[in-house]
Amino acid sequence: MIAGSIFGTISIFSALLRDQGVSSFQQAFFRSFFALPLILFICRLCAIDMTVSKNHLFHYMLLGMIMAGVGFFENTAVALGTPVAVVVLLLYTQPIWTALFGTLFLHEFLNHRKHIAVIMAFGGILFISRVWDITLTSYLGMLLALISGILLSLEFIMIKNLSVQSHHFLVSIFWFYVFRTVFTVPLGILSGLFSDNALISQVTLSLPAKEWMTLFLFALLPMVLGMVFFYRSVKYVSIISTGVIMLMEPVSGVIYGVIILGEMIDWFIVAGGILILLGSVLVIKS
User: Rounded to whole angstroms, how far apart are CA atoms 132 and 75?
Assistant: First the structure.
């Protein structure tokens, strides 16, 4: 839950940077790029061996590609004119796919309590996104957003598998962030082909010091601190439970939006947050 709460700052950093004209491509690249020297510094300070085998390197590369793909499909869906509420809803179908993949690949048991928790959590996302207010959408964009949700689930599955390996958790995080950074570049350029919106794919290095500091904090909080909590906890928590609990990210993002950005919420958002919290409590008790 702590990891999900820290990941909730992603939407706040993204909104702050967007309002200053920093594109989603540039945000995606620099938040993982700046995380690398931070992790490397800690590893060197603690004399942690950074070497990994070629076999593990392939898994880190695949995970990095999946992580970059989540952002690519999400941003492209928005660029195609898909309403943000629809993108959020389809991205956070993640618990459904996580329950499915966790049962198929990790042979986890989906008991009645977890089953109800997944349904409650997804119902919470329905309330938060308020998709019934949507009149126009892009079906291709909806498909891409759904793919983004599936990839997010696969990301959780792969991190779960890596967490039980012998490598230090910081080493694993460092290497899959290396490949996330690398794959973000071509995918970011590709997403720019779908839209001429500067907030999607524009790149500029002439940013004020305040924006660079925000990008640095973007890397430090969710990308380093949040991922450390997530990586360490997913080793001991079932992946199905993890999928539900990680919906604390959009819930905490809404709360931060009210506190920091002064955004307004209604009873639908409150009801959605309560459903997600109750779903999280159910899987924790199970």
Answer: 22
Nearest to 239 by CA among 111, 120, 96, 99: 99
Nearest to 239 by CA among 283, 178, 193: 283
2: which residues sit within 8 A by CB, 6+ positions away? 229, 233
**Rounded Cα–Cα distance for residues 201 and 86 (Å):** 21
Phi, psi of 167 (to 5 degrees): -65, 150
Helix (H) or strand (E) holding 43: helix 35-45
Residue from 77, 122, 78 nearest 96 by CA: 122
236-277 per-position pLDDT tens digit:
989 989 998 898 888 888 888 888 878 777 888 888 888 888
Grouping H, G, I as helix, E, B as strand and the rest as coil, residue 20 is coil
**How far apart are the C-alpha atoms of 110 and 275, rounded to whole Å?**
19
Question: According to the model, what pLDDT value does residue 115 have?
Answer: 86
Q: How many residues does the chain have?
A: 286
Per DSSP, the three-state class of 111 is coil
Any alpha helices (H) in 20-83, and if so which ranges? Answer: 24-33, 35-45, 54-79
Q: Which residues of the chain have pLDDT under 50?
A: none
- Residues 160-181 have pLDDT tens digits of 998 888 889 999 999 999 999 9
**8 A C-beta contact, residue 282 and residue 114:** yes
- C-alpha closest to that of 279 among 130, 87, 139, 121: 121
pLDDT of residue 61: 96
pTM: 0.89
State how far the Cα of 214 lies from the Cα of 141, in Å rounded to an integer.
Answer: 29
